[in-house]
């Protein structure tokens, strides 16, 4: 027969264990935002349905996820509020015949990017593109999608396929796939270099990081180096200027062991003799040989 009291005792223990573990202590899986997967945590731009050159409204996120509001990136917040100028990344021109000619109206400074922005006009159409190093108002830009047999001698700001330009040309806003739009090389003062032509209608370009990419020759690109070359060499200058750029202060604690400030290389200290308490230093014995060393043949020992 079963012991009813023992079963009741086990039941009471189980109930006590269940009540001891609260629901609050149980782990709850939460999808955390991932950095570098196409979502920017500095600002959110409100794009309209149709392209426009009117400056767009911007919502500063301060390093938080736009959906959940979780703090994802530290050190972001504040700063001067800027409007966003919508860049038309696709430079589309005729595939046959003379190229399309566009005129630079003005060059402005965009607070949401490092390179300067140029407003260009073609007919009754206006659009923004990234300005090159020596671009100025009144310049005429050519855009063509034709790949001739002889390479084109392009000017700064012109847009051509990679296969239409000679080796050694400096380019930016390079398409990753034909028709995608300028995807590579957007930073101020940067440029990629066309290295050589490869089989299967491919073109090898060298990125600013010295890496080489093989792209189809139909990918469009813009000739020249991007503007605002002195951006990388210009110091911030003050803490207030850094706050105006939208960067919050970091901790002033000097963290030596994290490796943040590099490894300190110093020469080792001199040799220290360790002596037991109340003992004396042992005598050093040096073995010497009074006779000169004579080299003998191996056969003398193995006759």
3D architecture notes:
- This protein is mostly beta strands and 303 residues long.
- It is built from 2 helices and 14 strands, in the order αββββββββββββββα.
- The chain has helices at 4-20, 239-244; strands spanning 43-45, 58-60, 100-108, 117-122, 125-130, 140-143, 159-161, 170-172, 174-175, 182-184, 192-198, 202-206, 212-216, 220-223.
- It has a 6-stranded antiparallel β-sheet, with no helix packed on it. A 4-stranded antiparallel β-sheet has the order 5-4-3-6, with no helix packed on it.
- A hairpin with a 2-residue loop joins strand 4 and strand 5.
- The termini are far apart.
- The mean pLDDT is 84.
Summarize the structure.
It is built from 2 helices and 14 strands, in the order H-E-E-E-E-E-E-E-E-E-E-E-E-E-E-H. It is mainly β.
Instruction: Specify the helix fraction band.
Output: under 10%
**Measured on Cα atoms, how large is the radius of gyration?**
35 Å
Oligomer description: single chain
Strand order of the largest sheet: 7-14-8-11-12-13
**Number of helices in the DSSP assignment:** 2
Summarize this structure as a short list of keywords or feature phrases.
extended; 8% helix; 14 strands; 21% strand; 303 residues; four-stranded antiparallel beta sheet; mainly beta; six-stranded antiparallel beta sheet
Secondary structure: elements and pairs:
Elements: H1 4-20, E1 43-45, E2 58-60, E3 100-108, E4 117-122, E5 125-130, E6 140-143, E7 159-161, E8 170-172, E9 174-175, E10 182-184, E11 192-198, E12 202-206, E13 212-216, E14 220-223, H2 239-244
Antiparallel strand pairs: 1-2, 3-4, 3-6, 4-5, 7-14, 8-11, 8-14, 9-10, 11-12, 12-13
